[in-house]
Specification:
mainly alpha
């Protein structure tokens, strides 16, 4: 950090909600160390709503005692979820409209409840299930099975796939 004197450094951590509380506490030690070395360290944490709960706990109050900016993204609305999936498919294929049936997308969007990471995971599961079923576009039935698989991967479902 001595080389960072006269500069500001930003440490960005994605999926910070997965960090153990002890690790989050140690980030404050890193900030203090940087300050003692004459550097300015900003920490940007991105994560699910569980992160906000962790940061709000009494034991982590020192991480939020400095001026901070908090921004919470609301879950996508169904129309936004569809646009998000369409965009992701457009990046991956030129035939995005033939990947999922409309009913399959409706099921995926409803199950994901507007969470982008869940949309990604459910679409991936449905694509894999569609591949194994040799089905294109992926049907609502295959999407339903993929959604169930993602929620409760029981041994009978794993064996079948």
């Amino acid at each position: 950090l001595a080389a960072c004197q006269q500069h500001s450094v930003i440490l960005a951590i994605d999926d910070a909600h997965l960090m153990p509380p002890l690790t989050l506490k140690k980030l404050w030690t890193l900030v203090e160390y940087a300050a003692s070395a004459g550097a300015i360290l900003y920490i940007a944490l991105a994560g699910h709503s569980a992160l906000e709960s962790q940061l709000d706990t009494l034991t982590l109050h020192h991480l939020t005692s400095e001026p901070v900016v908090r921004y919470t993204l609301s879950p996508f609305m169904p129309k936004e979820s569809r646009a998000y999936i369409d965009h992701r498919l457009a990046q991956a294929t030129t035939q995005a409209e033939t990947v999922f049936t409309s009913r399959a997308l409706t099921r995926i969007i409803k199950a994901a409840q507007g969470v982008p990471g869940t949309l990604n995971a459910l679409c991936t599961n449905a694509l894999i299930a569609g591949f194994w079923a040799q089905q294109r576009p992926v049907s609502a039935r295959v999407a339903r099975e993929a959604i169930a698989q993602g929620q409760d991967p029981g041994p009978s479902q794993l064996r079948r796939w």
